[in-house]
Specification:
By secondary structure, this protein is an all-alpha fold. It has a single domain, classed as MetI-like (MetI-like fold). The protein is 77% helix and 0% strand. The protein contains 13 helices and no strands. The longest helix is centred in the N-terminal third of the chain and has 35 residues. The protein is globular. It starts with a helix and ends with a helix. The relative contact order is 0.12.
C-alpha cells in the first residue's frame, strides 16, 4: 500500500520535475558546458574563459559595484523590515493598514518608478528646483556617484513591504504561551526580544535573507531603464556585463561569469545555512 502511494506521489511530481529539467537543469548544464569551450567552434579551452572573465575590467568593476550594493542593501533591508514588523505586531489590529501601505511599491510598474526618479533627480528635475530656492546648485544626479544611492533607495523602497510580510509570518508562528510564561518569570520586553523572538526567527531569517539576495539582482531593470547598457560607473552592475556580452554573442565569457556567480551565491547560502543550524543547536 505504501509503495503504491509512493508511485502516486511520483506521478503527480512528474510535470513539475519535467518543467524544472527542461527550463532549469538542462539550460544550466549547457551553460556549464559553454563555460569550458570556445564561443566559435566549441573547442575545449579549460579554464581560459574564467581567466578572461576575472581579468576583464568591466567585470571587475561591475562585480565590485554588485558586492557593494549587496553588502549595503541586505543588512539595511533585513533590519528595517524586522523593526517595522515588530512595530506592526505591537500595535495589533491597526497594523493591517500599514501592511497595505508597505506593499504598494510592489504593485507599481518598474517603468513608472523610473519615470518618477527621472522627473525627480533629472538635471532640471524637482529636486534641483527645490534646492535652487535656497541658492544651492544642483546636479544631474543620475549621472553622478549618487546614482548608486538612488538605486539602493529604490531596492529598499520596493522590497521592504515583502520582507515585512515574511517577518510577520515568522512572528505569528511563535506561540504566545512562551511570552506569557516568560512574563510570569519577570522577563521584560528586551528579554522577550533577545531570548524568545530573535532565536525563534532564525528559520525565517534564512529564508528572508536568501530571497532578499535574489531580489537584489532584479534591481537591474531599474538601472537599465535609467542608464541603458552603459550607465554611470557606480551604477554599472553584473547584469549590465551579462547583457552586453549576450548582445555581443560572447557566450563563452557570459557562461563562465554566470557559473562563477552561481557557485559564489550557492556557497554563501550554504555557509549561512550551516551557521544558522549551529546557532539553533546551541
Amino acid at each position: 500500500m505504501m509503495k503504491k502511494n509512493v508511485w502516486k506521489g511520483v506521478f503527480f511530481l512528474l510535470p513539475s520535475m519535467a518543467g524544472v529539467s527542461i527550463f532549469v537543469l538542462l539550460p544550466f548544464l549547457d551553460v556549464l558546458r559553454r563555460a569550458f569551450t570556445s564561443a566559435i567552434g566549441g573547442q575545449f579551452v579549460g579554464i581560459s574563459n574564467f581567466q578572461s572573465v576575472l581579468t576583464n575590467d568591466a567585470f571587475r568593476q561591475a562585480a565590485g559595484n554588485s558586492i557593494r550594493f549587496t553588502v549595503i542593501c541586505i543588512p539595511l533591508l533585513l533590519l528595517s523590515s524586522l523593526s517595522l514588523s515588530l512595530w506592526i505586531r505591537r500595535i495589533g489590529k491597526r497594523g493591517g493598514f500599514f501592511k497595505s501601505i508597505y506593499l504598494i511599491p510592489m504593485a507599481i510598474p518598474v517603468s513608472s518608478i523610473v519615470l518618477l526618479w527621472k522627473y525627480f533627480f533629472h538635471g532640471q528635475g524637482l529636486l534641483n528646483g527645490f534646492l535652487h530656492l535656497f541658492g544651492i546648485s544642483g546636479a544631474d544626479w543620475m549621472n553622478t556617484q549618487y546614482s548608486f544611492w538612488i538605486l539602493v533607495f529604490t531596492y529598499l523602497w520596493k522590497n521592504i513591504g515583502y520582507d515585512v510580510i515574511l517577518w510577520l509570518a515568522g512572528l505569528s508562528a511563535i506561540p504566545e504561551s512562551i511570552y506569557e510564561a516568560a512574563r510570569v518569570d519577570g522577563a521584560g520586553e528586551r528579554e522577550c526580544l533577545f531570548y524568545i523572538t530573535l532565536p525563534n526567527l532564525l528559520p525565517s531569517f534564512f529564508t528572508i535573507t536568501v530571497l532578499s539576495l535574489l531580489n537584489s539582482f532584479k534591481v537591474f531593470r531599474e538601472a537599465y531603464l535609467i542608464g541603458g547598457s552603459y550607465p554611470e560607473e557606480h551604477m554599472y552592475l553584473l547584469q549590465h556585463v551579462f547583457q552586453n556580452w549576450f548582445r555581443d554573442l560572447s557566450l563563452d565569457k557570459l557562461s563562465a561569469a554566470a557559473v562563477l556567480v552561481f557557485f559564489i551565491i550557492f556557497v554563501l547560502i550554504l555557509l549561512l545555512k550551516n551557521r544558522l543550524q549551529k546557532e539553533d543547536n546551541i
